[in-house]
Specification:
127 residues; mainly beta; four-stranded antiparallel β-sheet; 45% strand
Length: 127
């Protein structure tokens, strides 16, 4: 069964930066024909949409709270997706999950639109 794997989380001070990466556990799982997204879940809260990116990477969408600070990108040749997080705030503290939609499928900001998920990586921002 295909799983996604996140890396790059950690502890950072407010105002700092982190870059998260997401890759598939199976080499034959193709990223290039899937919409990819990032979600996060803060303690005591429901998981929320953060960002998503189109197949080619030409279109991106963000939740208002991260727009202008976070950048989602992808490298289809490497089957990898990234989330560059700058200007981190304590309220960004959460477990971050990467997700992939089905091949050639549509997906927006709803969890049920994504078929594959990672185990999550912890991001902690200290004040």
């Amino acid at each position: 069964q295909v799983q996604l794997g996140e890396s790059g989380g950690g502890l950072v001070q407010a105002g700092g930066s982190l870059r998260l990466s997401c890759a598939a556990s199976v080499r034959t799982f193709t990223f290039s024909n899937r919409i990819l997204g990032w979600f996060r879940q803060a303690p005591g809260k429901e998981r929320e949409f953060v960002a998503r990116i189109s197949w080619s990477g030409s279109a991106t969408w963000y939740v208002d709270s991260v727009r202008g600070r976070f950048t989602i990108s992808r490298d289809n040749a490497k089957n990898t997706m990234y989330l560059q997080m700058n200007g981190l705030k304590p309220e960004d503290t959460a477990v971050y999950y990467c997700a992939a939609a089905r091949a050639y499928g549509l997906a927006s900001n709803r969890e049920y639109e994504y078929d594959y998920w990672g185990q999550g990586t912890q991001v902690t921002v200290s004040s």
